[in-house]
Amino acid sequence: MTAMAATAGAGAGSEAGHKRAGAVSVATALLVAAFLAVGSLGAYRYVLNFWLYRGFPAPRDPAFVKVAGTEQQLQLRSAALGGRRQLVDVYLPPGYAQDVNRRYPVFYLLHGFPGRPAAFLSTVKLGVDEDVLVNQGRIRPVILVMPFGSTGTFTDKEWADGIGAHEGWETFVARDVVRAIDARYRTIPNASARAIGGLSEGGYGAVNIALHHPREFRVVESWSGYELADGISSIYGGRQALIRYNSPLVRLRAVAAALRRDHAYFWFYSGSTESPSFRKQNAKFAGELARARIPHRFFIINGGHNWAVWRANGSTALQVAATRLQHG
């Protein structure tokens, strides 16, 4: 296991670096092309719409939805971040305002890099998915919570507790956000009613946080994530012990008994044409889960590392979480 961890920074780092460089170059190319084609105002609108919806139409409920959920935004002060106020998007499910005695499970969702939490509603369209599924009677309602996991859209924090002062991004999620949501909303405040998931880097963060806090979350989802830490020096400072601690492939065996005892369930996938490194990491992690006798499902889905895949599978991901969580 130590040998595997030692390669974590190099393998995952090169993949994540390629992903970051590609995202910036594509965004730059789009911006330049848009300015040349339609002028500054048209370019601004084009880039804004593309950033919000990634080429998809704006999400709207179908006509049969009679009761819809509602979006809220919070600014939470986090002790783990040195008192910094951090944005958290919340989606209250259909019926929350009407049934004032009901309590709800919570699905915590972590964005990728670069990214913002609003993408789960605007691009993946999870709010519409929930409205549809609840109105059709296919799931019971769940509160969706989407924290912002960085100081800027293009600043990488890996959802990890870093070496710097006030860089406790993992603790921000697992302690500060969870406590704040339980205090503000009618939740069921225990692990059996909490799921955590995310896409790309957020999928890695969800698995990593769940392994560090095995009594905090019952369901863990990773959409095109990975399980070896990207050894970014500003986060881990080159400390191999810290990189290993934040590599779920290395960490799993140490917490397997606690995960079994608390009935954790893992659901994760990779795209058929995305990074071979990510696919291999996920397959190895599935093998480790099987050896540890921890319930899970891993599968390869047709597609790449992109919004089309995450959007197409958002409804299924939500159904998986909702059906395995405790409801009030």
Give your account of this protein's structure:
With 328 residues, this protein is α/β, with parallel strands linked by helices. The chain contains twelve helices and eight strands. It has an eight-stranded mixed sheet with strand order 1-2-4-3-5-6-7-8, with helices on both faces. Helix 4 packs across helix 12 (314-324), helix 6 crosses helix 9 and helix 9 packs parallel to helix 10 (276-291). The N and C termini lie far apart (41 Å). Mean pLDDT is 89; it is low at 1-15.
Using the coordinates above, name the CATH class. Alpha Beta
What is the H/E order?
HHEEEHHEHEHEHHHEHEHH
**SS-derived structural category:** alpha/beta
Task: Give the number of helices.
Answer: 12
Strand segment tally: 8
Name the CATH homologous superfamily. Alpha/Beta hydrolase fold, catalytic domain
Strands of the biggest beta sheet: in what spatial order?
Answer: 1-2-4-3-5-6-7-8
| C-alpha-based Rg, rounded | 19 Å
CATH topology: Rossmann fold
Fraction in helix: 40-55%
Strand content: 15-25%
Keywords:
alpha/beta; 46% helix; globular; 328 residues
List strands and helices in order, with pairings:
Layout: H1 2-6, H2 8-53, E1 70-78, E2 84-92, E3 106-110, H3 119-122, H4 126-135, E4 143-147, H5 169-184, E5 194-199, H6 201-212, E6 219-223, H7 233-236, H8 240-245, H9 248-261, E7 265-271, H10 276-291, E8 296-301, H11 307-312, H12 314-324
Parallel strand pairs: 3-4, 3-5, 5-6, 6-7, 7-8
Antiparallel strand pairs: 1-2, 2-4
